[in-house]
Each structure stands twice: as structure tokens, then as C-alpha cells.
Amino acid sequence: MNMLIKGGTIVTSEKTFVSDILIENGIISQIGESLTLPQNTRTIDAEGNYVFPGGIDPHVHMALPTPAGPSADDFLTGSIAALYGGTTTLLDFVTPRKGQSLVEALDLRIQEAAKSLTHYSFHVSPVEWRPTTEEEITACFSKGITSFKVYMAYKRAVGLNDDDFYKVLQTVGRLGGMVTVHCELGDEIDVLRDQFVQEGKVSPEFHMKSRPPQLESEAVQRAIHLAEKAKCSLYIVHVSAKASLDNIRNARQQCNTVFAETCPHYLLLDDSKYFGSFQETVPYVISPPLRKKEDNEALWQAIAKGLVQTLGTDHCPFNLSQKSVGINDFRRIPNGAGGVEHRLSLLYTYGVLTEKISLKKLVDVFSTQPARLFGLFPAKGHIAVGADADLVIWNPRSEQVITAANHHQHCDLEIYEGVSTKGHAEFVIVNGLVVLENGKVKEDAGLGTFLQRGK
Ligand code: URP
Ligand code: ZN
Ligand code: ZN
Fold it and tell me: Which residue, 211, 209, 203, 212, is CA-closest to 329?
């Protein structure tokens, strides 16, 4: 089935223009006016709506294993929520068990993700350095994985020390890939966490207080230094602190291989959320924690100026019952919150409509830059002849209020509870097929594909 999208306002990271789009065999075949239509063409009227490239969320954790059980969305429910939010590609993670090969863990994760309705790929996490790790990273490359993830935090579970981090950087740098990194100094945080608990300070407030912004910005500085030495491209995930931005700015003045991501919650929410009852504050137990309003503002400016290139959600929801395992000890609360569904509506409402960013910048951070940085461009992240027909038709006129009662994320907590948004995805198209229309995802429309990168 071919498709004509008629009269929409097409937005790319470079320009905004009104035109028609013809899709044939899942690919954009023509852009222009008065196009000659092949037989069997469905026409979708997009007049008055925007047409964006499908969103690419560079940072999600579906069914992340934790001692409190897996994060609450699996690849089916999480991908459905993503589609409601105009995201058509998810970059998740492979987190092996200690002793398990990266390749075996990758193969299992590919099987687990096969039920996804969006496209997907992974950043693979070496959680230790073993004699075979170098060849395992190389083998992952040949399977289409070009990005890897290191945790400087969570030292007692998946975090690496600097020596092992450096070995990962050297290996991935030699192969021409990207290392993504969670920057927080894990050892110092562990000392603070233990101290607070010994003093009887066990509530979510002390999760925040045990992870001060300096421990993020110092980790950022350390990671940049190691990556420069190892000659490896570095992507700093979920930057939350103004102080980290200063280090990233300095690094980018010297070299163009340091990149940064932030998340909607670091733009819109602040640390006042940690003061209240356990039930009120526990949804915000995420790492890094929420910061101050001045950090929110600095991050918006960093997006506008291109210092931060992407917006990921770090989607990692847990139900209240899971979070409640830490009612007497914040160290036991699984870290993370949902958000995959809200990235576009929040960015549109609180970025574009408040004139903090342009529509082109929205497309850039929502889709184009994640595609460029993770080897998916120009097939994805772009609207052009020859690109894959993964598209969102965005109706900018509607208004809604986010609530756990009617979100599509498979979770009973919602960190944006009560937040008003404007606009919604009227149609979402994946591979030239309509997967969302009339306010509903069609679960039988087709499955997403595993995107092999670097091929
Ligand atoms: O709190 C968070 N961010 N949980 C997910 C794992 C991570 O650190 O990205
Ligand atoms: Zn992280
Ligand atoms: Zn994460």
C-alpha cells in the first residue's frame, strides 16, 4: 500500500515547509506538490498539522532486571507507549550478568525485544573487564552494535573503575564507535549513602542528598579526560547539572567528539519533589536526582545552543509496589521513572510554545541528532527522498493533562502527574504503515525491526 501525506507542514532539523509526501514500499519516494500517484494510494490529509520524522529515543530501559523485579514496561508495552508519543525507534541496553559474554547477552536481548512495535537497537554495557572483553566488543560490532555503555555509578552492581572504563574506551575508539557513559562518582556516592543510612536518614530525600551535582560534574570531567586520551567519541547520558555543562562546553571547544544528552525531567522538574511523604517522593528516585530550577534553565539554554545534542527519556518505570521495597532504606529503591510517551508533547509544549527552542531544534534533539550520533542517519531521523517512512503527524491544537490513570506506560506511577500538554500524534507511521490513528495504536500493524548499525 502506498501513501500520500497531503498538505502537512514538514519540519526537519534544517527547514520547515508545506508539501506533500509520497511513500512507496516503506520509503519516501517523492516530496513536492501535484505528485503523480501510483495505484492503491491512501491519502492522509495533514493540512494544519506538522509532519516530523519519527522520534528516536536514545535512552530507554525496557524490562531492566533489578532486585525489585524488572522495570515495568517490556518491549511490547514500552513500544506502544513510545508510539503514542511519536517515537518510532528505541535504543535500549544490553546489561550482561557478571561472567556472561556480551555477545550471548546481546543475542538474548535481541530475542526479548522481538515483540517491539518500534524499531530498536542497543548500547551494550561491559560490566567488568575480562580477558575476552575486547573480542566480545569486536563481535558485537560485527552484529551491528556501534555504541557501548559504561556506568561510573552503581559500583556494587554494574559500575566500572577508571582502568576498566579506559580499556573500553580504547577498544571502542579503535573500532570507531561511541562510548556512552553514566557520569556520577560511584565510590563517593556509596560512602554518602551508607553514612546517611547509619544516621537513620533513610527517606528518598537522602537519595537526592547522597548524589550532589559536583559528583556528576567531576565524573563528567574524568570521563572526558579518559575519552580524549583513548581517542574515543564520548556521549554523556542524562546530564542533569549546570556544573556538568561547563565541563562539556570546555571539552567541545577543544574537540568535537564529546556529546551530551539530557532528559525532559531535568528540564521540567526540580528537587522540591523530594520533600513530602514516602509515597509522594519515591517516584522521583532516579539517578542522577532532580536538581534546581537554575539547572533546568541552563539545560534549556544548552539545548538551544547545541551544547546538548539529544533528548532521551531514560524511560525506566517501576510500580509503587516495586519502589516500596525501599520504604526503610532508600538504597533499596529501584532507580528510574517512565517518560517514553511524553518526550514530544513536553518538548513541544514547554520548549517550542514557550519559545525556548524552535521547531527545527525540536526535530533535531528528538530525532535527527540521535540518528546521526548512533549511525541511523540518513535512513532515519530525516524527511527526504530515500529515507525510511517513519513519521509522526502532529496535531498541535489539542490539550491534555498527563496522569497515571490514562497514560499508556505500564506503570502506576507518573512523574508528570497533572502536567498539561498541548498537541498529540494524530498518525504515526512506521515503515510506511499506519500504526497509530484515531487515538489508538494498532497492535497488529506490524513489528519493528532490529536496526543493525555500522553496516
Ligand atoms: O535512575 C535511573 N536513571 N535508572 C535507570 C538506569 C540509569 O542509570 O540510567
Ligand atoms: Zn544512568
Ligand atoms: Zn538510563
Answer: 203
